[in-house]
Amino acid sequence: MNEVVVALGKLMRPEHAGQIAQLLNRRNQLKARFDAETIRRRAANFLVDLDGDQVLACIEINRIQWYQWEISHLAVTEKEEGKGHARQLIACAEERALRGNARIIQCTIRVGNERSEHLFQKCGYQMVSTFFYPHSGHNVGVWQKVVSRPITATPAESPEEKSPSPSLT
Question: How many domains does the chain have?
Answer without folding.
Answer: 1
